[in-house]
Write a structure and sequence with these properties.
The chain is an alpha/beta fold. It has one domain: Rossmann fold (3-Layer(aba) Sandwich), CATH 3.40.50.720. The strands form 3 sheets. It has a 9-stranded parallel sheet with strand order 12-9-6-5-4-1-2-3-13, with helices on both faces. A two-stranded parallel ribbon has the order 7-11. Helix 2 runs parallel beside helix 3 and helix 4 packs across helix 6. The longest helix has 19 residues. It is globular.
Length: about 300
């Protein structure tokens, strides 16, 4: 049985990656910080280690043919920053993969990273990608547009009664569901692709996202368009006026708003249904199960 080591397994995308690889018949090894407190994951083995501590990773990837990392942070907490996690922790994983003789390393990056190099989070990710390309291990880089979960900001604003947009609201994006991104990642790896830009099946302007949110709430659209100069001003002020945990994601969000973020359409999940399910949670039996084996490393 083929073995895959998944880093970032307890996060939004990581859980879908574990489930997808297990569905495909792989033996799934999930990296977790603490096995006793980890929520149920579709994994055959839990490896308890800290990616920021290379010593704790020793031997963790034994027998693995593939490493998939979606390890990264959105809000900088616990004294750790983007360069500690998005760059260095992933580099630690890469070095251990090299020592373990792993055949391929797949990494979840960001769409249009070259245009977002001034954003600290993207700069750290891009620096790791550069190291990955220097490695002797074959690499697959997956660059998604944005997750359905990220679009919750539009729904939250609509729930508050008004959506605020910069400029004309005509910049476009095709966000992708985590389950679809997991399938796209596994397909790209199976095909031996070096790089894939990927998004969901539906393309929206920012204005259309706002209108969809109001429609799902069954409320009339109330959208205010702000001059784009205010977005640029906010980008300048954020580092000086907000704590690090807000400054980082804020700079990424405000910078991405100025770009068309469209990847190759992929998947079957639609944002409208996601918004509706968010508003009306449906109780279902979780497809995730507790691991059959746990290993401390």
């Amino acid at each position: 049985m083929k073995r895959v080591f998944i880093a970032g397994a307890t996060g939004y995308l990581g859980r879908y990656l574990c489930a997808e690889y297990q569905r495909r018949g792989w033996y799934v090894i999930a990296l977790v910080r603490k096995a006793t407190t980890a929520a149920p994951i579709a994994a055959d083995q839990l490896v308890e280690a800290q990616a920021t501590d290379p010593a704790s990773l020793k031997g963790a990837m034994a027998g693995a043919e593939l490493v998939v990392s979606c390890l990264g942070i959105t809000r900088q907490t616990d004294g750790l920053g983007y360069w500690d996690v998005d760059y260095q922790a992933n580099l630690n994983l890469l070095r251990e993969a090299e020592n373990a003789g792993v055949s391929r390393f797949a990494y979840i990056h960001v769409l249009r990273a070259a245009d977002l190099g001034h954003v600290p989070m993207v700069a750290a990710k891009s620096a790791f990608v550069a190291e990955l390309h220097k490695s002797t291990i074959a690499a697959t880089i997956v660059a998604p547009t944005g997750y359905f979960s990220d679009m919750g900001d539009f729904l939250a604003m609509a729930q508050s009664g008004r959506v605020w947009l910069f400029g004309t609201g005509e910049k476009r994006i095709n966000p992708i569901h985590g389950a679809d991104l997991a399938v796209a990642t596994a397909d790209a790896v199976a095909a031996g692709l070096d790089w894939i830009d990927v998004g969901g099946p539906d393309v929206f302007t920012q204005k259309e996202l706002a209108e969809l949110a109001f429609a799902c709430l069954q409320k009339p659209s109330r959208i205010t368009f702000l001059p784009d100069v205010l977005r640029r001003l906010a980008l300048c002020l954020l580092p000086w006026m907000t704590p690090r945990r807000i400054n980082g994601p804020g700079r990424f969000f405000l910078s991405a708003l100025a770009l068309d973020m469209i990847g190759t359409p992929y998947g079957t999940h639609h944002l409208k249904e996601h918004f509706q399910n968010t508003l009306t949670p449906i109780k279902t039996v979780s497809p995730l199960r507790r691991p059959t084996e746990r290993k401390k490393s």
